[in-house]
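Tokens as discussed.
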């Protein structure tokens, strides 16, 4: 039977998706993109899922675990190349460029990448293995590949974190500009020629040069590796 016309019809809410670790992580990334890393918490994610924080703990134990899982999920979207000995150097650059892009696309996640000393999620492990495989395909020993992969990873995470600090507001552009003016005034007050090179480098360090600086660093690291080929065998 239908309800009388004067009755308020019952509200039929759509069934909520079943709670899972994947859904919790995806929701955490939604909060990250909308509100920033500092807003991500078990309580905030539970609120977004219209449930209580206690219901999340069966799937994710802590906030630290949650953000690590979020980082690992971000890495999942980065394609991993099959090693080609003829292109190992370009492939390494492409992989770390893609990692940087993935972190930039999720502002704040680079802080997690920097703080997690040894990421052990399945995607982080696949990335580590991919880097080692590319370097081994280039002819490096396992020891060389391990040290090189660590250096390249640290460089990329640090670069991503620096960029993230600007995009998330951790760094106040006005404060930085003020400090820059103070430094210029101070250095201009010193004897002429005291810092002849330093006074001319400011133009190379701004948001517009970030891509160029990242590429230079990659070339520098990989060029140094190529020069070491054959050592420590």
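Sequence:
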């Amino acid at each position: 039977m239908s309800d009388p016309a004067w009755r308020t019809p019952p509200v039929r809410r759509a069934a909520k998706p079943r709670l899972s670790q994947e859904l919790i992580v995806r929701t955490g990334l939604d909060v990250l993109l909308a509100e920033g890393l500092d807003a991500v918490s078990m309580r905030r994610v539970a609120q977004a899922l219209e449930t209580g924080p206690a219901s999340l703990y069966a799937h994710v134990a802590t906030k630290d675990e949650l953000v690590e899982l979020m980082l690992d999920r971000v890495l999942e979207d980065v394609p991993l190349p099959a090693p080609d000995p003829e292109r190992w150097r370009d492939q390494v650059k492409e992989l770390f460029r893609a990692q940087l892009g993935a972190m930039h696309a999720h502002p704040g996640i680079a802080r997690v990448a920097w703080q997690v000393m040894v990421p052990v999620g399945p995607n982080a492990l696949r990335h580590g293995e991919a880097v080692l495989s590319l370097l081994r395909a280039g002819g490096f020993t396992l020891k060389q590949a391990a040290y090189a992969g660590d250096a390249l990873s640290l460089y990329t995470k640090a670069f991503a974190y620096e960029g993230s600090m600007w995009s998330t507001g951790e760094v106040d552009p006005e404060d930085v500009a003020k400090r820059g003016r103070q430094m210029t005034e101070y250095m201009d007050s010193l004897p002429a020629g005291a810092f002849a090179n330093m006074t001319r480098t400011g133009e190379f360090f701004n948001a517009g040069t970030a891509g160029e600086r990242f590429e230079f660093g990659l070339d520098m690291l990989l060029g140094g590796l190529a020069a070491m080929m054959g050592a420590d065998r």
